[in-house]
Amino acid sequence: MVNKQIQHKTFEKSPQCDNFCRLTGATGVGYTVFRDGVKKFGKLVRDPSPESCVDEKVSGLEHAMESLYLLLRGNDVKTLLEGHKTKPGEVSVDEFTETLRRRSSFKLVASVCCEKVEAHDLHIEKDKPCPKMIPLRCTHGRNGDKDNRCTCCGVQRRLGNIFAKLEGDESIKRKPVTVMEWKEARRQGHKKGKDNTQRELTSTVMTVADLLDHFKNLLDICIPHIQEIKWIKHLQDTDFSKMSKDTILIFTDFAALMALRARQAKNSSVDAHAIIANFVVLWNKRIVDAKGKKKDESGEEVEYEEKVTISNVDVFHFFAETFEKGKKNDHQMHNTCLDEIIRIFRARLGELGVELKHVIIWTDNAPHQYRCRQTFIQVASIQLRHPGITVTHRLAVVDNFKGIHDAVGKDPSRIVRELEKMDIRSPTAFMVFVNCIQHLETYETKWDELERENDIGIQLKGRFGLNERTMYFVTEKKEDYDRLVAQYPGRILLCDRTNIQDTISKKAVDDTMQLHEVKSFETSLPEAYQSKGKNKLDIRNWRVLTSYLPCNCFTCLGSFSRDAVVNDRVVKVKVTTAALEQDIFVRRDVCQYKEWCKARVYTMKSPIHHPRIR
Fold first, then answer.
1. Of the four listed, 87, 291, 539, 571, which is most buried by Cβ atoms within 10 Å?
2. Please, are residues 516 and 394 in contact by the beta-carbon 8 Å criterion?
């Protein structure tokens, strides 16, 4: 848009203008009203921004909602649905239309499921309201059977009569409508004799009957999907609230491949690239007695004290080159970096007199980086490299892992672009590492000073106020490692691709695509044995605890009681966290969400591996 007049003309033709007139009874919106409104709410009226890492399921449903909303606004459909009688338990036409207008898939899912109920077993943060959840039987089926969902709700139960009326009218049923849907789009190149494709939003013309089927299919997919998004978000919150002194909480992801574009380049020049793995580590959670001033009822300034919960937030950027053949931002680089993070914080906590015992790591679902057997066997065999430590690897819902790790991952790219304008070049990933040490690395922030002074401003730090930022460089060649480690001691890692731990016959964990948690189970090195057959292999069996839906209820956190007989009387006896660690089957039997969590112990078989310890 180039000026307000053009914006006004576009707005006049939009569904938003029609809806405004319908709600207010106005016959139109004049230019003066529109102009003054833009001045007052300028941040709300703008061109849409490009979006990346879009949730395809939610996006597809919301585009279908938009097309269905436009259909329901038509005079022929309004006439058809006029006087439609709503039965108990059904969504009315007006309610359905309003939900579609809001284009919120979350509100739509809530409207077709049973009412949310307070989940008292999940009320871990007592300073916050009890979380409300749609019952899992409505979204994931009774007893975890997805084909046996609650009969009191669902798409057919809540919206079936409206759809039946639309499908029963032949003229409306065959009416063409335009829908944006995700499809495979052809791209340049071939692979295994087939054209390269990628998923992309495409404008499609279909009949109303096809739109309704498309909408119902997407809604059926999104009902469990959105429930899992809410469940995982609650899980992340409780991971932070229950984080103890001997635990570190990690959020990590690979940033987009960094293009090292020169400010001055020849025609058709090719950019160099850099890999970045970003780790955000929360640790040393503590309570600070902060002091501040505020005005009392009489208007006089008085001092007050407040307890503020904070933790250290340290950011680590690991850079790597892309010169050698093969994918670099993969499981091997991730595991190399993670081992270094564990070594660092084992030492840092040791300086505070605390022994590191638990590592909780959150990642996305990338199949060659995190959701793969090579990463899971590293979790299972953590005792081999870091004795006495347990690792809980939690995987977010697909396309739903935005957060602090994304925000900090943009900073190196921004710094490199700014330096390039000053003719400070970063032609390789190694030089990105060197320049970021000088221009981005941080060891002291305003939060450290506020904490030392017990200033109430420390409460603005929130959960992710940064304390420290450090750079590392990862190389695959031993000769490069030996050369660079002398220049940058403690900052160079060797990603040894000749020594990758794997499973026997490359066997993956069962139901890998369904899992959202893989947790180490062994407390010591399992006994080795020799395989049968011609090729004798020395093998260890590594057990892991896997879960479809990880759980942080009172039961699974160790704060629960169960019936026990004491002096011939049945009483409630508290089961401690230690008891849970000793017997995982106690958790499985007592947790009320066990049918949906589907926690189980799985054995991964791996040849005896001898990691190279730096």
1. 539
2. yes
